[in-house]
Every structure is written in C-alpha cells, then in structure tokens.
Amino acid sequence: MIAVPGFEGRRVAVFGLGRSGLTAARALKAGGAEPVLWDDGISSRMQAEAEAFAVEDLTTADWTRFAALVLSPGVPLTHPKPHWTVEKAKAAGVEIVGDVELFARAMAALPQGERPKVVAITGTNGKSTTTALTAWVLKRAGLTVHMGGNIGIGVLALPAPTPDAVYVVEVSSYQLDLTTTFAPDVAILTNVTPDHLDRHGGMEGYVAAKARIFRADATLKYVGVDDPTGMALLEQLKLRGPVDEVSVDRPLNGVTGMYLHEGWLTHNAHPDPGGPVERCKIVDLSKARSLPGRHNAQNAAFAFLAATDLGLPQATVIEGLLSFPGLAHRMEPVGRLGPVSFVNDSKATNADAARQALASYDRVFWIAGGRAKAGGIDDLEDLFPRVQQAFLIGEAAGPFAAALGDTPHRISGDMAAAVHAAYEAASATGREEVVLLSPAAASFDQFPDFEARGEAFRAAVLNLGATPSGHG
Questions:
Q1: Residue 18, Cα to own-chain centre: how many angstroms?
Q2: What confidence score (pLDDT) does residue 472 get?
Q3: Nearest to 195 by CA among 13, 448, 374
C-alpha cells in the first residue's frame, strides 16, 4: 500500500466504496488522515465498518470540517449533472480529488532522489494492452515494476515506493478528471475516439480530460496521431516542447517517433542533439507471440519508446515485445476445433475497437452485439466484405442487422447460440477460419462487464470440444 501524506489529523470525506474508494481510505489512514466514508449501498458501508472506518451519512455531515472529498471515478463530477457530494464540497470550498491524484501527491512528497519513475497510459482503445506490454518489457529487463490503476489493482494498493521502482499506471478519463498535480515521467495517449461523452458533456470535455495526462512540461510525451483528435492535440503539445508521435497508418518523415513500415516497427530519432532525424528498423512484429494487427503495432511502439527512454537497451526491449503473452479478452486466442480458431476480443466495446480486430483478418465469422453505443457499427461498413457471416446477440442485434444489410447475418440472441452457429458455419467451408467475438458494444444488457462476456464466450467454445489455447 502507498500511504498518502498531507492530511495528517484532518477529516477527509470518501464517497464511493468500490475498489478505489476503500483503497483510498486505507491509504489515507496509513498517512495519518481521518477518513470518513459513505456509500449509497448498505453492503459497502458494512464492509467499511468491518474495517473500523468512520462511516457517516454525508448528506447531513458538516462539510466545513473536511479537508478534501475523495470521489470514486464512477461518480459523476460534472455530467450528466454533478453528484450531490460534488455540490456540497464546492459549496464548502472543499477540494475534490481521486485516487490517482492522491498517488501523485504521495510520489511528490518523497525526496527527489527517492522518487520512483511513473509511466502513465491513457486513450480510448489500447491503453490496457499498452500498459501490460510496457510492464512486461520492463519486468523482463529485471526492473522492479508495479502495474495498476484502471487495470488490475487500484493504484494506491500497489507496493510502497522504492527509488528503483517503476509504476506503470493505466488512467481513465474519469480518473484524470479528478487530478490537479499528476505529473508522470512518461505520458502516453494511444488514441482518442468518441466514448463516455455523457460523462464529459461531449467530445470537447472528453478530450480535455485525456489531455490532463500531459499537464507537466517535464513529462516525456507520446501521442498516437492516426485519429484527427490525436493529431490536433499533438500540434498543441508541440507549442510547449518536444513530443514523439506514433502512427501505424503512414510513415513519419522528419519527425521523431515510431511508425509501421513494411511490417516493421521503425524508429525515427535524433542520435545527435540538434542533428537530422535518422530512421532505424526495429522489429518485425509478425514474429511476436501475441501482437497481431496494426493496433498492436501501435501498442508495441509506445512500449518501445517508454522502455528505451527509461534506459533499456533496444535488444532487451525487442525481446520483451516478441515474448509478450497478451491480455485476456483482447484478441485472445481461446481455442481451436479442427480448422476453426476462436478469438476473444470482448474488450472491444465500441466500433473503433472492433475495427482493429476485424482488420486483422481477411475472413471472419463475427459475433457482435450487446448494448450499442452511439453510431453502432455504421463506421465499420468498409470491413463488412471480410465478414463471411455475422452472429448477433443482445439489444443491438436488430440495429446491427439493419446496418449489415446484404452482409450475411443471423440473430442468435445469446452467446452460446452464437458460438454454436458460428462454428457450424465456419467449419462447413472446409477452410482455415476464424470465429471472432468483437462485440462493438457494451456488455451491460446480458453481462455485468466485458470480462464476464469474454468468459461466457470461452466457456461456449470449450463446450464445443475445442482444444484450449495456451495463455500467459
């Protein structure tokens, strides 16, 4: 655990007692604060009481006695409307922070020579894989690495800092909205496409939240520029200082960064300060254990840049990239039955994420659907020729069927039926085929989260008698 200083002997309100809320309360208490907890759920309050925390109804509390409000990232800060705790805190002049901000203050409180390095990753898609890949590469090199935040465990539950450590932290737009001093040593923005717009009041608010990762001028900055928003943000950041760009859609000429060229990750760098940019082919990603598709080339580029800037030799970084085992529910091979392979990409909860998976295969039997997001799958029309047949589940089945038009499809309803029908159709071709779960929709109509949806897919595949694929 990371103890949070700065609130010794002062009352701090904590609202939202999920993973990050309880962890923040423990970290505050370890730092000498007096956390006061509340949650709308009785079971959450009972858990807090069981840990001997002060539990107080914040609707009737005296807010002038609080030094801060620690808000769960799942609780609305501004939109669709501010949560009542936010309104009470602002009325009393109480600052509002989140767990990532508390982590930042704990790091900043350490003497300069005792601070660990912090690598932070955000973006609409790819941030989890980039986070895990970066952590993997650093660990393989023998460094002390702690990974968490929006992936794995809450950032304050990570081990206490030591000077030799590197924290690799995934941060969401919700978490960044609750930061004021977060200044990682390395900051990565994978891409930005419309998502969570209801929570940020539109695209402008969403982009502003993501851009908060680059607040500190001393931070090493890396930006994906294959979307218009990333490119626009790059131009803004260049006015403040150096920034490296990453593209897998086009070569980079005369600028520092990485891009994909003839299947190779290629690095543009200044070997001599002030000298010309030199181009160097780094690694053929077709040889990687678990980095298929152009989107994973982008993830690998970010990991390479972060690791080499932390001082790792290129050969060591390349070995880490090639040996990465991949993440569950992200282009994860889960099984094979005869000539048919099954790939679990349940994390693809929007069309842009599903695009990355569909673009990785020339032919695919596609399982899609769930609770549709704005725009549905309309933007994927150019990839429909790759879809041999689609099998649609959940609330989005009807709208997705309409969008597919003449592309062969059927409404399967649930996961088990979709997997069974997709296998029958794929095996009937007599060719090597891929059954891909890449839903392009949220899971919440049929499943509590994308992990549960992915596990349902895995179970259905194994129930067919498929041989499980090795993972990890």
A1: 19
A2: 36
A3: 374
pLDDT interval class at 465 (50, 70, 90): very high
Backbone dihedral angles phi then psi of residue 13, each to the nearest 5 degrees: -75, 135
Q: What percent of the chain has pLDDT over 90?
A: 89
pLDDT of residue 195: 75
Is residue 69 within 8 A of residue 96, CB to CB? The reply is: yes
Residues 367 and 196: their CA atoms lie apart, in Å, by 23
Q: What is the pLDDT of residues 313-357, one digit of tens each?
A: 999 999 999 999 888 999 999 999 999 999 999 999 999 999 989
Global pTM reads 0.84
Terminal Cα distance for the chain, rounded: 26
- Bridge partners of 38, per DSSP, are 15
> Is 292 within 8 Å of 307 (Cβ atoms)?
no
Q: For the packed helices 314-323 and 294-309, what is the interaxial angle rounded to 10 degrees? A: 140
Q: Over range 151-175, report the average pLDDT.
A: 96
Q: List the strands of the sheet with 387-393, edge to edge.
A: 409-413, 387-393, 364-369, 433-437, 340-344, 332-337, 467-468
User: What is the SS3 string spanning the chain?
Assistant: CCCCCCCCCCEEEEECCCHHHHHHHHHHHHCCCEEEEECCCHHHHHHHHHCCCEECCCCCCCHHHEEEEEECCCCCCCCCCCCHHHHHHHHCCCEEECHHHHHHHHHHCCCHHHCCEEEEEECCCCHHHHHHHHHHHHHHCCCEEEEEECCCCCHHHCCCCCCCEEEEEECCHHHHHCCCCCCCCEEEECCCCCCCHHHHCCHHHHHHHHHHHHCCCCCEEEEECCCHHHHHHHHHHHCCCCCEEEECCCCCCCCCEEEEECCEEEEEECCCCCCCCEEEEEEEHHHCCCCCCHHHHHHHHHHHHHHHHCCCCHHHHHHHHHHCCCCCCCCEEEEEECCEEEEECCCCCCHHHHHHHHCCCCCEEEEEECECCCCCCHHHHHHHHHEEEEEEECCCHHHHHHHHCCCCEEEEECHHHHHHHHHHHHHCCCCCEEEEECCCCECCCCCCCHHHHHHHHHHHHHHCCCEECCCC
CA torsion angle for 414, 398, 367, 125 (degrees, to 10)?
-110
Tokens coding 15: 């609202």
220 alpha carbon, distance to own chain's centre: 19
Is residue 290 within 8 A of residue 435, CB to CB? The reply is no
Q: pLDDT at residue 471 above 60?
A: no
